[in-house]
């Protein structure tokens, strides 16, 4: 997954991911934001799944929820809200994006470093 982090004109951090993973960027920017505790907890959980200390995990946010299982992370819209109109045509019952555990952990570690 390719990504970059920038700040908007108000100084808020924004994550931009490649087209196949753009929901992860939206999730970081608008759902997780600068919640360092949540980010650290997710990194630790991903490591537990990688180490086979935990089988799976679900994280429910304001806009998205993640399912971490079977060496993969899938991101879904919450049933009650759409993040942006660009995703309206997508099948809301299925994931809007997915990636590997290591890839997601790398993204979160870089986001945490970026937001300081």
From TrEMBL:
Pfam families: UPF0231. It comes from the Bacteria. InterPro entries: UPF0231. Belongs to the UPF0231 family. This is Uncharacterized protein. It comes from Marisediminitalea aggregata.
């Amino acid at each position: 997954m390719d990504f970059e982090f920038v700040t908007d004109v108000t100084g808020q951090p924004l994550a931009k991911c490649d087209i196949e993973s753009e929901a992860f960027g939206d999730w970081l920017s608008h759902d997780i934001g600068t919640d360092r505790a949540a980010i650290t907890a997710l990194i630790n959980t991903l490591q537990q799944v990688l180490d086979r200390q935990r089988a799976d995990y679900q994280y429910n946010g304001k806009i998205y929820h993640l399912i971490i299982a079977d060496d993969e992370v899938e991101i879904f819209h919450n049933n009650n809200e759409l993040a942006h109109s660009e995703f309206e045509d997508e099948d809301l019952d299925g994931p809007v994006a997915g990636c590997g555990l290591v890839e997601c952990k790398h993204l979160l570690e870089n986001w945490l470093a970026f937001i300081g």
